[in-house]
Amino acid sequence: MxxxxxxxxxxxxxxxxxxxxxxxxxxxxxxxxxxxGSTPLGMYQELIRMHREEGLDFSRIVTFNLDEYVGLxxxxxxxxxxxxQQSLFDHINIDGRNTHVPDGRALDFEAHCEQYEKLxxxxxxxxxxxxxIGADGHIAFNEPGSSLGSRTRLKSLTAETLRDNARFFGSIxxxxxxxITMGVGTILESRQCxxxxxxxxxxxxxxxxxxxxxxxxxxASALQLHRDVIAVVDEEAAQLLERREYYxxxxxxxxxLEAGEISKLLPHKx
Length: 270
Ligand code: F6R
Known about the structure:
Elements: E1 2-6, H1 9-26, E2 31-34, H2 41-54, E3 62-65, E4 67-69, H3 80-87, E5 99-100, H4 109-122, E6 128-131, E7 153-156, H5 159-165, E8 178-181, H6 184-188, E9 192-197, H7 203-211, E10 229-234, H8 235-238, H9 244-258
Parallel strand pairs: 1-10, 2-3, 2-6, 3-5, 6-9, 9-10
Antiparallel strand pairs: 4-8, 7-8
Helix pairs in contact: 1-2
Bound molecules: fructose -6-phosphate.
């Protein structure tokens, strides 16, 4: 896993946006997997800025969101569809027909989840999946104990997630108890994953995800099995990482390589 430690939320957001923008420029028909929550918000703002000021073109981009609460209409203020419209889609030139968020009001959940997977397949698979992480190590709504091979399905949210998300609702009682979520297996099939984490509350989850054993109790740890994951975390989220200095060293080497300065990495001849 490539680990990039940035100073704070704004620098995490800019770095993450640069990865997304590079792909959008290189392959304008890319399929992006998107996340909701507080963490990717700065990245979305930066992408909107790039669209407005630099002409970053989303007209042929296709997106699939990770998850949606069950029981909320797309227009509900807390629905993830609404979140995506307000945080990104309404401010860029994406074609609304190319944006996909699971439907929290689907009548036949099983059929809807199967159809969602099929749509991802038909689009050619996800090129880059953006991920946040829960304090309990979840990715999407794959709560601790979720199968690491799981596919898009209905999931009960844990008490911890309900508490964490209550801040967006009037009270904890109003937080939906069920969600439709891509599975860990679905996420692992993306060609590349971009994991973002900011703040002290994520430090334990990040430590276990990157340096702990692969376990269904920390579903993000399954990303260790993926061949192309970039974790962009701020200092606070990185504070428990034991190999922090090594990750920084790898990034310094990476920058020299990108600048064509490989000679600075070779052993000195005596
Ligand atoms: C959202 C999602 C969740 C969040 C996670 C972190 O689509 O899939 O896994 O990424 O709960 O949320 P924030 O970023 O609000 O801390």
